Amino acid sequence: MKGIKGDRLFIFLFLTPAFLISAIFLYYPFFENFIQSFYKTDGFFNSTFIGLDNYKRLFKDEIAIGATLNSLELMLYVAIFQVGIALVLAVMVDSIKHGKRFFQTTFFFPVVISGASIGLLFTLIYNHRNGLLNEILVKLGFERIVWLTEKSSLYMVAIPTIWSYVGFYFVIILTAIGKIPDDFYEAAKLEGVTGFQRLTRITIPLIITDLKTCLVLAITGALKIFELVYIITRGGPARSSEVLGTYMYQKAFEDSAIGYGATLAVLMVVIGVSLAIITNKLLTNKDEVTY
Length: 291
Description:
Layout: H1 2-36, E1 39-41, E2 47-49, H2 53-60, H3 62-94, H4 100-108, H5 115-126, H6 132-139, H7 153-178, H8 182-190, H9 195-206, H10 208-223, H11 227-232, H12 244-254, H13 258-282
Helix pairs in contact: 1-13, 3-7, 3-10, 4-7, 7-10, 10-13, 12-13
C-alpha cells in the first residue's frame, strides 16, 4: 500500500507542472474568452454586459455562417486528403527496402516550415502576372489564368493546407505500420491475401486507432487555420474563402469588437470538440487489436 501511495505522489508531482501550465495558458484564457462573449467590449475600458446578444447576432450574421461553412468544407478536404494521402505514402514507403529515411525527411519537411512562409510561397505561385503556374502556362503557349476567383479561392487555399501537414500524419501512420508484427503478413500470405486485400484486411484494421487520432487532429486543426488564408486571400475575393479564424481576427483586432470575436472563438471550440467526439464515436471499434 505504501508503494502505491508513493507512486501516486510522484505521479501527482510530475503532472502538477503540466496541469498548471495548461490552466494558466489554456483553460483560464478560454474561460475569460467565454466571459467576454457576453459583453460588448473593445477589450480595454468600454465594456457593457449584453447577455446572449452576441450569440443571437452570430446566428443572423451571414458572413459568420458563410465562414463556418467554408471552415467545414476545408475541414472535409483536410480530413480526406491529408490523412488519405499520408496513408498511401506510408504504405508505399513501408514497402520499400532502401531509402526510407530520405522519404521520411522529404515528406516531413513542409511541417517544419512556418504557415506564414508557406502562405507567401503560394501567393507567389498563384500570382497572375509572374507567378510560377502562369509562367509555366505561358511557356507552354497558353493564356494566363486568374487562380484566385470566387469559385476557386477555397480550393487554392486547401492545396497548401493539405500539403503542409501531410508529412505529419505520414510519420504517425508509418510508425504505426512499422509496429505491426511481420507474422501477421506472413500468415496472410500463406492464406493468399496479397496486394490491396493486405491493406484493407490487415494494415488498416491494425492501425485504426492511429488513423482515428490523425482524423481528430486533422479536423480540429482545420478549424485553427488562419495564416494561410489570411496571407493568400485575406478571406476574399468577396468573402469566398473566409473562414472562422480570419473572420474572428477581423472582428476582434480590426473592428475592435472583442466580445463578438470571443463569441466566434467559442463557436470554433464547440464545433471542434463536437466533431472530435463524433469522430471518436463513429470510429470506435470494440474489436480493436492491440499488439
